[in-house]
Amino acid sequence: MLSLIGFLTILTIVVLLIRGKVQPIIAMVLIPILGAFIAGFGLGEIGDFFNKGITTVIDVAVMFIFAILFFGVMSDAGLFDPLINKMVAFSRGNVIAVSVATVFIAAVAQLDGSGASTFLITIPALLPLYKRLNMNPYLLLLLIAGSAAIMNMVPWGGPLGRSASVLGMNITELWYPLIPVQIIGMVLMIGIAIFLGFREKQKIERRFGKMEAAAALENTAENIDSTESEKSSSNKNPNARPKLLWINTIIALGVIALLVTGIIPAGLAFMIGLGFALPINYPKMNDQTERIKAHASSALTMATIILAAGTFLGVLTGTGMMDAIAEDGVSIMPEAVGPYLHLIIGFLGVPLDLLTSTDAYYFGILPVVEQIASGFGVESVSTVYAMVIGNIVGTFVSPLAPAVWLALGLSGLEMGRHIKYSLPWLWGLSIVLVIIAALIGVI
Hints:
The chain is an all-alpha fold and about 450 residues long.
């Protein structure tokens, strides 16, 4: 009975999140409490479950709040602008170089962990270039989506934060083994960009002829040169602090160094970084307040989801529902399948992203798979890595990701054609990365 109640609780939450009927905080707080009442637990016991659940996720919630604020302030101050502008100029209208530059620009833009800001930075900067060269704009979306998704494995990205809250472990320790996977993933994305860029160049030459394509390339290079000085002289961002670029770079590198070394908790590293970044870039109190307000919504939204997940996991673990689901799952699952369940789900991660929201995948499916796989001797971190790597690459091709609709709105493209163009490449990339992660011992 406890297993059935737990399963129905998770299923109800997943359905509500997929259909977008309620905010995640509502589904992940009220439904588990209702399930606990049905299972015969009282308010006092549920309160204890809540306290234990919140304890496991509070560090992750704190880290998200200050990470989003820190990278938001850094982006406002223009830390990433010169690098992006230089990459656009360096490509000089060469189709293959533009494709490769797109991968790097998206990776830099995704450093703040926000898909929305990545598309806001990359698409307005690169779409005119793609149109001028007669390049397929869906290639632009594919390259941004793949590169940004791989970069999104950082601790302040949503998927890893959700996974850490499910396991109740230190998020930076969870991230360390993924660094080689990110590096390999970026190398593969560069390879995809070169191949698709070469293919795109051939298509353009077949369609428009080599002479016309070469003339478009030459005109584009001249336009880039003529507009580069205008961009540098007329700063469109009133919050940018170009004179403080090197100081901001040192602050950002210092925070990343603290994260990699793990000397202090991730949340404290971002607190310190924000403590330096705000007064240095915005000495006036009013300006500091405005910058915090500008990013507070994103920071608190993510933190509330993590805290609600703590309640959800605390109740399901404290009542014994998760253990009951795992025991029953192990008993009914064929023994030949059990040890490989995490890999199977990992291989299906991208298509599952088309069917489930991020919250539903990590808070609904991951805990169940982790518990069942554990019953067959699979380490919990291996399950998490398989599911994260397999799923995350498809983040920005899913119609359930709000940032994707922003990208489509900015580019004037269609969701169906984006999925048709990008899905095969991104799904293939995710499968390759899961296999590589297994070969190098991450999974």
